[in-house]
């Protein structure tokens, strides 16, 4: 259910950024989501379809890239990519891990129409 709150903030942010560009339509938003965030892109799309009704974001498509969980083992010193189900070092089986990535959540880009012309506006501002 936390996707509802996330989607509300996401929509508000996208509408603000689109207004700054004098956009008339928001086509899509590209999100980067860390594997540990537990965010389901399909849920964001479902909530967005409801919340964006009657705005320039109506019909906006969510595109998501899931970023891998990367760790550094404090026992053997090696960096690895692991799954959220395998919370140990694949090299030495150590449990003393430092998370290097996998908790991110940000907007990579917005695709908008400005006066009938499609353009791509990049922004890395939401985490």
UniProtKB/TrEMBL annotation:
Supply the source organism for this entry.
Faecalicatena acetigenes
So what family is this one in?
Answer: Belongs to the HypA/HybF family.
**Superkingdom, taxonomy of origin:** Bacteria
Q: List the keywords (alphabetical).
A: Metal-binding, Nickel, Zinc
Residues reported in the UniProt entry to bind Zn(2+): 73, 76, 89, 92
Classification via HAMAP family: HypA_HybF
Q: Where does Ni(2+) bind?
A: 2
**What PANTHER family would the database entry show?**
HYDROGENASE MATURATION FACTOR HYPA (PTHR34535)
Q: Which Pfam families match?
A: HypA (PF01155)
Describe the task this protein carries out. Answer: Involved in the maturation of [NiFe] hydrogenases. Required for nickel insertion into the metal center of the hydrogenase.
Check the record and name the InterPro entries matching this protein. HypA/HybF
The protein's name: Hydrogenase maturation factor HypA
Q: What is the lineage of its organism?
A: Bacteria, Bacillati, Bacillota, Clostridia, Lachnospirales
| Keyword Metal-binding found | yes
